[in-house]
Amino acid sequence: MAPNVPWPGLDDEDLLLAVANTAHGEQDELADAPSTRAWWLGIGSPATTRESRPDVTDSVAMLRALRVLIRGLALRNNGVEPDLSGASGLDALPLRLDLHGTPSLRADVPGDLARDIGAATIAALLRATGRPGWSRVKACRGDDCRWVFIDSSRNASRRWCAMANCGNRAKMATFRDRHRSRPPRAPQSQP
Q: What pLDDT shows up at residue 172?
């Protein structure tokens, strides 16, 4: 993989969504170096991507911390203040400014796939947050979801990844809470 070059066909926001949405439920595509490589190849990255070194546990943990950061910032864009304490592992990623061609960032340690992905993702995050459309990158408000998506609604008011799933559950919970707090109605007598 060339430093700071995401795979063909994906822009900055697509790369951010791809990294942010690597874990839901029991499946974590960034669980270890082999699963990270399989995910990377599975999303269409070039087959010439370098093999990760065997001692990349810290690098993969850094990618998981980056996922927490992206989800947290996207959740903030959706009006929820996130807990970003899980993003502290990003201190382990030394970056270098790359001035060849378009200025960007690259991993300081060559040959580590997870660090290369992390460097490209951080560069994409810095570019994306500086654009007017950044506020449309949101995370689902569903407590058990947090899927990151682009809000393409006209007034940028989308709250959930899908209204049919997370949105409907949230509205039903609000409905149940509202009706639990009401006193029961007294039966009306018939004349």
A: 72
Q: How confident is the model at residue 5 (pLDDT cuts 50, 70, 90)?
A: very low
Find the CATH number of the domain harbouring 100: 1.10.3300
Domain count, the chain: 1
Tell whether 187 is covered by a domain: no
CB 36 within 8 A of CB 117: yes
CA dist 33 to 49, 70, 88, 162, Å?
13, 20, 20, 31
Q: What single-letter DSSP state applies at residue 65?
A: H
What are 80's two structure tokens?
A: 């929820």
- Run of H or E residues at 127: helix 113-129
CA distance 121 to 125: 6
Look up the pTM and report it: 0.78
Segment holding 97, helix H or strand E: strand 95-98
Residue range of the domain that includes 139: 12-180
